Amino acid sequence: MSSHPHSTPQRPHIEVGKPPAGRMLSSIARRVTQWRAGQLINSALKLAGEPSLVLDLPCAADGLWPLLSTSDSRVVIAAEANAEQLTAALAGLHAVFSRRVHPLQTSLFAIDLGANAVDCIFSMYGLHHIDDPRRRMLVLREFNRVTRDCVIISVWVDGNLQAVRQTPLSRRNGQVHARAQIEREFTAAGFHISGHRDFMPGLAMQRLYVLRKLS
Fold first, then answer.
1. Percentage helix, strand, coil for the chain under 3-state DSSP, each rounded to 5
2. How far is residue 192 from each of residues 132, 184, 212, measured CA to CA in Å?
3. CA dihedral sign of residues 199, 202, 208, 212
4. Which terminus of the chain has a smaller tally of CB atoms within 10 A, N or C?
């Protein structure tokens, strides 16, 4: 494991039932995924202008806070509706980041912060499973209210090999969004699309959008 100050300590994970070679391949795949996620997040933060105060909503114990905290001057508000999940996520946080990560128990649909409270909202999971456009619009408008400047948001979009392989049920359940539709929703919620970053262009359906709040 790297000794770089921004690396995330990981507990050894043993996959029961897999031979050693299979566990090794799974471990390599996880490391590659984490490395690529780090690339995307850093690139999106640069496109967003390296915001100083970031709201991570909903957050999770998945190693993203060290990636969000690569700037020593950046403060992260880690927000989650479920108190137990929030406590568990904070428990796994390395001490080097604890002074710059502050917890907030709040809902995705009614954020317990004032207008223009943060520079940027980072949402890796907020829209992935919201299939109702009206509920998505509630979230996006709440993001527009709380952010002063921008939003970095992850969406699973169509137009790639992974999306083509999804089942019709997955598409109906909102797991895969039509790019044209979701981009219209961003605009209707009061955002301009500054750009996007694809996990694997043409192959994977995960895309990070950087949205600017319209004045």
1. 35, 25, 40
2. 22, 10, 5
3. positive
4. C
Pick the closest to residue 154 from 14, 17, 60 (CA basis): 60
Distance of CA 86 to the CA centre of its chain: 15
Length of the chain as a residue count: 215
CATH number of the domain to which 81 belongs: 3.40.50.150
Q: How far apart are CA 149 and CA 142, in angstroms?
A: 13
Q: Which domain holds residue 184?
A: 20-213
Dihedrals φ, ψ of 29, to 5°?
Answer: -60, -40
Decide if 154 is inside a domain.
yes
pLDDT digits (tens, 9 = 90+) for 142-192: 999 999 999 999 998 888 888 888 776 555 555 788 899 999 999 999 999
